[in-house]
Design brief:
There is one protein chain. By secondary structure, this protein is α/β, with parallel strands linked by helices. 39% of the residues lie in helices and 14% in strands. The chain has helices at residues 4-10, 15-23, 26-35, 38-60, 69-83, 87-108, 151-155, 171-178, 195-201, 221-226, 250-259, 279-282, 298-328, 388-395, 420-426, and strands spanning 119-120, 126-132, 159-165, 205-210, 231-234, 266-271, 332-338, 343-346, 350-353, 366-370, 377-384, 398-399. The strands form three sheets. An eight-stranded mixed beta sheet has the order 5-4-6-2-7-10-3-11, sandwiched between helices. α2 (15-23) packs across α6 (87-108). The longest helix has 31 residues, at 298-328. Bound molecules: zinc ion. The site of zinc ion has 6 residues, from loops.
Length: 443
């Protein structure tokens, strides 16, 4: 009964549900639980209720099946064969084993790096990596969504890649694959080959600013990678920090960092909360420009606005960097990408969440904005999230003997997608392209 509402979102207990549970804070948990429709909670209550009704009616009609030993034995055999009642327990124990193995591995490599010494031919400049959250590419106007929710990305001089695939379908699963140079065959991260360690090994100073939850130093693989940075700033530090911080709060840390003089290149990572469900809680501090006539599209309107807010955040990051460039002449490069997409669920209101996997879950935006860029370029090329760390290394001019040469921005499709097409083909849900809210907007 207790697990049933969670099962609605995550299915049977597995590594993903367990590690996400470990990584959450009370604020996030409340939001998560409030996303589950009331219908699902009612169904869970039915579990003990139906048992009770069966028992009472058995007593009332004096059926009392528990007095018939043959009947009990037959039922038991039947249940064991058909339902395997230990399945749930077995899945939970397995998930626990995998989670603890992963965390052990993470701790083992927490301070260790196997990159050795690297070089960089980068000039003394700033690299800003903005990590988006739950942002589907097809909801960005600059990627073709009909509502003009990305005025900045539409016009900024940039390289826009159409075809980057995420490293997984949920935050931890994807980012551990994208921010470490993991194994490509079985899609596993290698924490001793992290992006942060790689940058540091090349003499690049590293900063991590985050609006995502943090409980303890090594509690989640992402905070484990973050903590390798030279300097760390978490808006949510502590299990009971329920505050709903806006991503805009990340900017003052960025400003503070770039105002410091530096004689070496810097990598500054901004881990946003982006469009994380509940998207309506993400857009409380921006004007509602997309009011819909039909309540069915209320949540989608929030989601479309969360992308608009992301566009605005990127614009503000860009202007902070541009101002510094004007003052000091220090050039910069900004990359924005998202960790994974989401799936539409249809109840009385259409929602977007991580309940299940969409065939569009892996389709994420990738945009690079260089201070010296003179035009906007769009590249249609299939790129793998599993090679993202290699691509970011190239971006920062890093050379290391253990690193494969890989360019995210050469416009060439990868010859190998490491089995992703089969993974997507195996997703049973029908394709759910972006839903245009234009016909439902109030004038
Ligand atoms: Zn995510």
């Amino acid at each position: 009964m207790l697990y049933a509402p969670v099962a609605y979102v995550y299915g049977l207990p597995d590594y993903q549900s367990l590690i996400s549970l470990l990584a959450t804070n009370t604020g996030e948990a409340t939001e998560f639980l409030s996303q589950i429709p009331a219908k699902v909670y009612l169904k869970s209550i039915l579990i003990p209720l139906l048992a009770l009704i069966s028992f009472i009616s058995a007593c009332y009609f004096e059926i009392k099946p528990w007095k018939n030993k043959t009947f009990i034995l037959l039922s038991l055999v039947c249940f064991l064969l058909v339902l395997e009642p230990t399945f749930f327990v077995r899945k939970t124990i397995n998930a626990g084993k995998v989670a603890s193995e992963q965390l052990k591995e993470l701790e083992k490599f927490s301070k260790q790096s196997n990159w050795g010494v690297s070089k960089t031919d980068s000039e003394n400049k700033d690299y800003v990596l903005i990590i988006g959250e739950s942002a589907r590419k097809d909801y960005f106007h600059n990627y073709g969504y009909p509502v003009s929710n990305t005025p900045f990305l539409d016009s900024v001089n940039s390289i826009q890649v159409n075809g980057l695939k995420s490293g997984g379908t949920y935050t931890i699963g994807s980012l551990t694959n994208m921010l470490t140079d993991g194994t490509k065959k079985d899609w596993k991260p290698r924490y001793d080959y992290s992006l942060i360690d790689l940058a540091k090994s090349a003499g690049i100073k590293t900063y991590w600013i985050s609006n995502q939850g943090l409980i303890g130093r090594w509690d989640t693989p992402i905070s484990g990678i973050a903590y390798k940075s030279d300097k760390i700033y978490f808006l949510n530090s502590g299990k009971y920090d329920d505050a709903n911080h806006s991503d805009f709060k990340l900017l003052r840390f960025l400003k503070h960092i770039v105002e410091e003089k530096s004689s070496v290149p810097r990598l500054i990572v901004l881990h946003t909360i982006g469009s994380h469900p509940d998207a309506c809680r993400r857009v409380l501090d921006i004007k509602n420009t997309y009011i819909v006539k039909d309540h069915k599209y209320d949540y989608l309107s929030c989601y479309v606005r969360s992308i608009q807010k992301t566009d605005n955040l990127i614009q503000r990051v860009y202007s902070i960097m541009k101002n510094e460039e004007k003052k000091t002449g220090r050039s910069f490069s900004i990359i924005y990408f998202s960790d994974h997409g989401q799936i539409h669920t249809h109840t009385s209101e259409i929602k977007l969440n991580n309940n299940s996997t969409s065939k569009f879950h892996y389709d994420i935006p990738l945009i690079r904005m260089d201070s010296e860029a003179k035009e906007k370029m769009v590249l249609n090329s299939e790129k793998s999230g599993l090679r993202f760390t290699q691509g970011l290394a190239k971006w920062m001019g890093i050379k290391n003997p253990k690193l494969e040469d890989y360019d995210l921005f050469d416009g060439k499709s990868d010859p190998n997608d490491f089995g992703l097409k089969d993974k997507i083909a195996a997703i049973k849900n029908p394709p759910d392209p972006a839903i245009d809210i234009t016909p439902f907007l109030k004038k």
